[in-house]
Amino acid sequence: DVKVTQSSRYLVKRTGEKVFLECVQDMDHENMFWYRQDPGLGLRLIYFSYDVKMKEKGDIPEGYSVSREKKERFSLILESASTNQTSMYLCASSFRRRAGTDTQYFGPGTRLTVL
Amino acid sequence: AQSVTQLGSHVSVSEGALVLLRCNYSSSVPPYLFWYVQYPNQGLQLLLKYTSAATLVKGINGFEAEFKKSETSFHLTKPSAHMSDAAEYFCAVSDRLNDMRFGAGTRLTVKP
Hints:
Chain A is an all-beta fold. Chain A has strands at residues 4-6, 10-13, 19-25, 31-38, 42-49, 56-57, 64-70, 73-78, 87-94, 105-106, 110-114. Chain A is built from no helices and 11 strands.
């Protein structure tokens, strides 16, 4: 079974803090993704990566950055957290590099609250 | 740009009744279409996907969906709802690069 793990299920941070969300997959997948999920908006893509040290912006990259130093790990960074970044963050991975038919496998999510 | 629209943010059915969750897509290229389910406090898991083979796709837990190009639809159905089907369901469209776009989701409630 594919396993995608996220470092925290719940996180509370203060405005202006630097926040790191970590994601690890154990199936040697090429692609990794970060989404945020908000009620009524579904999932929106923040960033994705199809190779180590490669990254591409999704639909809502503002206020976020990412890092992929190793194939199995993809980190999402909030440089200076703001209250409008309070959300559920979901990490996903898929097997082949940029293959449209591949299933994305999701982690359990991190619910981030910024006070 | 590709997108999906899920009609109805909430659907309520009785146990044993037909489940119908609607999804319409917009894509400039032949799409790949997915349905995912999210149970409370969990990530998303795949129910089924259409990848240009058979237009009627069967998935897990008795769900199926039919790709209708003329209607740009990919509606999800299940003949008989179970209490355990209560969850949020997401339709998604992917292009050939696995750039996936999700709908806003439909929350399914199953009444006893």
